[in-house]
Amino acid sequence: MAARIDQVEITQIDIAPKVRRTDAIQSFVTQETVMVTLRCDDGSDGTGYTYTIGTGGSSIVALLRDHLAPLLIGRDPQCVEAVWRDLFFHTHATAVGAITSLALAAIDTALWDRNGRAAGLPLWRMAGGAGPRVPVYTTEGGWLHLEPGELVEQTLAAKADGFLGAKIKVGKPHVAQDMARLSAVRSAVGADFELMVDANQAFTLAEAIRRARQYAELDLAWFEEPMPAEHVAAHAQLLASTSVPIAVGESMYHLSQFGEYVHKGACSIVQADVARVGGITPWLKIAHLAEAHNLAMCPHFLMELHVSLCAAVPNARWVEYIPQLDDLTTSRLKIEAGHALAPETPGLGIEWDSAQLKARRKFAPIVI
Question: What is the DSSP string of 192-252?
């Protein structure tokens, strides 16, 4: 007889960034980490999570508590597609949107964790098993407030530590300021080290075209989020005007939005964030959509989850290194020769530190 979910537990833990993180439009204030644990009548369980960068955590908790978690009681945890679809349509009046997708992700990742643990299989094998190693780049040293000398120092340190690339934030008031920072880094690290730039949606179309024209001489791996994500046609115009690959995805919340970008030829690289698109179930569909159009997956943030998802699919090119869960886990991302290694631990591969979770939780667990 199939197992049934008989309890859902919800909690939140806030994590301060280890370093100051700034970009062209915002600062990363705190990671609001909303966690969901599912328990089943056969004794199995699974834990998933989602996040914000400082706002919206309480709204996610409320949506889970009042509307989504009660619908899980009595459901078969192996029917992941059915659960995801039912929950999505139950909240359709608030979708497509960040809060709904983030809440769905907490549940969906918990289901995948439970099912992997029950089967004794790690996520990367359950989700496809394309290969256990994925190249890794770092973003932790490229923040916008850093002066050129600091950028050079930190990027050289990243190269010495074995990273194969680094991301630099752009969006200074004048393109000359961006170029001064980027040129200093390129000169220091050489041509064989990948550099990515990220504007965090700061530019108009005209300014994005202007800056891409300047950036092209630096042989960048990509120009990320040049404009607000809702402007699909503008991204298509930009891509048609430049040789610099255009990367999008962290500010998109549903498979259909990625389909529109692909259909209109508006991106070169897909950066779906597993939490922001609603979990592992839709993330895999986005990855295979990208694969069908010969586009690489280079997901945003959440390296602890994305290392396994990138290892699951054949078109993943990079894992982004931004450590954020170290205070809450005993597991660590393993890196060898510039490649992140997918964990072989059954389920998500994240080993939570139960003492830290209890000590740092924002409120007593909500039990449904």
Answer: TSEEEEE-TT---HHHHHHHHHHHGGG--SEEE--S-TT-HHHHHHHHHH-SS-EEE-TT-
Range list of H helices, 71-168: 80-90, 98-119, 123-126, 148-160
Quick one: tokens of 112? Answer: 């995948």
Residues of the chain with CATH 3.30.390.10: 5-120+352-367
* Parts of the chain belonging to CATH 3.20.20.120: 124-341
Q: Which long-range contacts (CB under 8 A, 24 or more apart) does 183-191 make?
A: 183/218, 184/148, 184/149, 184/151, 184/152, 185/148, 185/151, 185/152, 185/155, 186/218, 186/219, 188/152, 188/155, 188/156, 189/155, 189/156, 189/159, 191/219
Fold of 124-341: TIM Barrel (3.20.20)
Q: Which residues are catalytic?
A: 169, 300
What value does the CA radius of gyration of the chain take, rounded to a whole number of Å? 20
Give dist(CA 314, CA 310) in Å, integer: 8
**Residue 233, class by beta-carbon neighbours within 10 Å (0-12 exposed, 13-18 middle, 19+ buried)?**
exposed
In residues, how long is the chain? 368
Among residues 171, 162, 296, the alpha carbon closest in space to that of 222 is found at: 296
What torsion, rounded to 10 degrees, do the Cα atoms 71, 76, 81, 86 define? -20
Tell me which DSSP letter residue 347 carries.
Answer: B
Tokens representing 96 are: 């497509």
> What is the distance of C-alpha 176 from the center of its chain?
30
Each residue of 97-122: pLDDT tens digit?
Answer: 999 999 999 999 999 999 999 999 99
What letter does residue 25 receive in the DSSP assignment?
A: S
Residues 6+ apart with CB under 8 A from 158: 138, 141, 166
Helices 175-189 + 148-160 axis angle, to 10: 30
pTM: 0.97
CATH 3.40.190.10 is the classification of domain 5-120+352-367: no
pLDDT digits (tens, 9 = 90+) for 203-256: 999 999 999 999 999 999 999 999 999 999 999 999 999 999 999 999 999 999
